[in-house]
Specification:
The protein is of the alpha/beta class and about 450 residues long. Helix content is about 30%, strand content about 25%. The protein is globular and about 70 Å long. The relative contact order is 0.12.
Length: about 450
């Protein structure tokens, strides 16, 4: 049996942060993963996805400008070449991550981790005892219907060497919308099937409606209020059977993608043997991200039910909190005020702070600044579709309570407003900032003025 001060399960943002921080303070640390080192974001999520989104955005930019005579023709995505380009980002990650751990003095283990007892974890044939175990094992796709293993996972979609001519995306969250927008810009016939009446339910519905209109405008079919009941392989592709408007509907395509959310990837950890309690959302933790049933265990990222959104910045932040609480005793908790959250559709949708509805549910007196930006210079010069904003300002203090923006500059505009929300900045102060013009940031003045 090998012994360490800290054993980290998972090599993504949460696990890497916890391992590096505890090791930097002299603790003996081991890290284990049953997959290639690097985690979801670097290998199977954010980073490779944004490579595809970047190419699709270029196609979309040109497509919008062609009718205006501003460009001659729109480019066409060469999917195999784009897949090769994507791999230049992902392939180097596992060996580089392992080198970084080795240089830091972190022992690297490969294999599936399973608890033998509350302080002992088995990795393959080896038993590892640790003063603290950090569970940062990430998440996996959520299954929703019989036979839905006939669908591609988001990871498999990212690894496609050739794009199918038609695709069905099952789900209505980030993955479904983002990948559907990429596939449509790459020339595929795309359908989204969602069980509920709204996609992106956590975002302001008025702004989401602009995204929905744009999604349909580019040729994506949205089938809403249609729970999927079964999926099956058929000659030449797949069939998705859903209940829509009280009847049955069959949808066919060359391939489909399971994009109905993700669940904590903790089923194989033998949590009962470790006396580690769980909830439907992940490891049950207290405010310090410590297991509610085993004080030697902490959890972070998508594997933890800490109440925060399953986003990469949150995972790294939670890994930092776990490390500090292991090193110095439980004293730090999560503060997600001003979190910037972006859906990388084309154009993107960004949000931070409270929506109008959330503010009013909390009894906060607010004024709401809302408007269509399609005629604004920053949108017109790129022929943007559907650009729209909603900013929520507290009436008395005039601090910015939240914002949701859909448009070509949303991802950076929302970052600035996230800083304003987290720092409690006055809307008039932000509006009076002398931003460079013409930029997306310079539009904030007009969003925030009374």
């Amino acid at each position: 049996m090998r012994e360490f001060d800290v054993l980290v399960v998972g090599t993504g943002s949460a696990g890497s942060t916890a391992a590096m921080m505890t090791r930097s303070q002299g603790r003996s640390v081991a890290i284990v993963d049953d997959r290639a080192y690097g985690g979801t974001c670097a290998l199977r999520g954010c980073d490779p996805k944004k490579v595809l989104v970047g190419a699709a955005s270029i196609v979309d930019d040109a497509t919008r400008l062609v009718p205006l005579g501003a460009v001659d023709r729109a480019p066409v995505i060469d999917w195999p070449a784009l897949a090769r380009f994507k791999r230049t980002f992902t392939d180097p990650v596992p060996p580089e991550r392992e080198r970084e751990y080795g240089a830091a003095g972190i022992v690297t283990l490969h294999g599936r981790a399973r608890f033998d007892d509350p302080q002992t974890v088995r990795v393959g044939d080896e038993r590892v005892r640790a003063g603290h175990v950090v569970i940062a094992a990430g998440a996996r796709p959520r299954h929703v219907a019989d036979g839905d293993d006939a669908l591609l996972t988001s990871e498999q979609f990212l690894d496609l060497q050739a794009l199918p001519g038609s695709l069905i995306f099952v789900g209505g969250g980030y993955i479904a919308l983002e990948f559907a927008h990429v596939a449509a810009r790459a020339g595929a016939k795309v359908t989204i099937v969602h069980a509920h009446d709204r996609v992106l339910s956590g975002f302001d519905p008025d702004v989401v409606e602009r995204l929905v209109a744009t999604t349909r405008e580019i040729g994506i079919e949205l089938v809403l209020n249609a729970p999927v009941r079964a999926v099956a392989h058929v000659d030449g592709g797949i069939v998705v059977r859903a209940t829509a408007r009280g009847g049955q509907r069959e949808l066919r395509a060359e391939a489909g993608v399971l994009a109905a959310g993700r669940v904590a990837d903790i089923d194989e950890l033998a949590l009962d043997a470790g006396n580690v309690a769980r909830t439907p959302r992940g490891i049950a933790v207290n405010a310090y991200l410590q297991s509610t049933s085993n004080p030697n265990v902490y959890a972070a990222g998508d594997a933890a039910d800490g109440g925060a959104l399953p986003l990469t910045p949150i995972a790294g932040y939670e890994g930092e909190i776990v490390a500090e609480n292991i090193l110095h005793g439980n004293r730090r908790t999560l503060d997600t005020a001003g979190l910037a959250n972006v859906v990388y559709t084309i154009p993107p949708l960004g949000t931070t702070g409270l929506t109008q509805q959330q503010a009013r549910e909390r009894g906060i007196d607010v004024e709401v600044h809302v408007g269509d930006m399609t005629s604004w210079y920053s949108s017109r010069r790129v022929a943007a579709r559907g650009a729209y904003y909603k900013v929520v300002v507290e009436t008395g203090s005039r601090t910015i309570a939240g914002a949701t923006i859909f448009g070509p500059h949303a991802e950076e505009q929302i970052n600035i407003l996230a800083l304003a929300v987290r720092a409690g900045l006055n809307a008039d102060l932000v509006a009076s900032t002398l931003f460079a013009y013409p930029t997306g940031a310079s539009d904030l003045e007009y969003m925030l003025r009374s």
